[in-house]
Amino acid sequence: MNPVVSVTNLSKTYAGGHLALDNVSLDIMPGEILALLGPNGAGKTTLISIICGIVNASAGSVTVGGYDNVTDFRAARSLIGLVPQELTLGAFDRVWNTLSFSRGLFGKKPDPACIERILRDLSLWNRKDSRLMTLSGGMKRRVLIGKALAHEPAILFLDEPTAGVDVELRKDMWNLVRRLRESGVTIILTTHYIEEAEAIADRVGVINNGKLLLLDDKLALMEKLGKRQLIVDLKDAITAIPGTLSPWGLELSDAGDQLIYNYDPQKLHTGIAGLLRAISDAGLLLKDIHSSQSSLEDIFINMVGTGK
After folding, report:
1. Which CATH number is 99's domain given?
2. Residues 138 and 15 in one domain
3. Does residue 161 contact residue 190 with C-beta atoms inside 8 Å?
4. In a domain, 115, yes or no
5. How many CB atoms lie within 10 A of CB 277?
6. What's the mean pLDDT when you consider all of the chain?
């Protein structure tokens, strides 16, 4: 299967000398949900803007659906729907007219049934005749998504789509994204919300200081980079870890009733069996044993925080 978006050796240096992107390459496959994570100023919006043809690259190339996004700009751009981070909407326009106009800008014939379906999917049907200035921030965000979908694009870019919206609306948007993917739309989103990527993404990319630090399947990433913890609940609290247990590098909980062991689940021998025997030999009574896996947030904070 060929990628629907291919980015090759992309760099961008702004007039002031700021290097926003540094030799970024990635392929985006049809029908996937790709989440791009990174702190403010990492280069996420610049990357999206170059792919969509809004910002010119300093070096490198981008193809969308096989079309070069510079030499075949119209063909490439017709495949893309973009939801910007900013709420850029006219105050006096009406919801229905806004989506219809956006569809016409891409040369698509009027299709009231399509516009109605989009508005119903976005829970905006009862506000179709409302002026945009009367809508809440969350509803305006939905209208932006509707505008991006009005010409039925194959690829949808969402730049911080749930920024500033409440938790309930955020979950509604996650469900919408899943439905769009099921209909064949490829979705690329940037987000500050780690749980957003963890909940809906197929693959995750981490960008920092203009560099793409990694790009991998979400579950594989968590398996490869995430730590696993074995937590041993003790029947009786202790004040210090016995010296005989020092080879395992254990941590003692604040309450003194848990021993925490970090290990690599990829290794053939994790040392757990020996640890449990040593705990028993130290005269400690076990109450319970359970394990936990590092979250995507733990991995992200570790990568960005270490300045990789």
Report:
1. 3.40.50.300
2. yes
3. no
4. yes
5. 10
6. 86
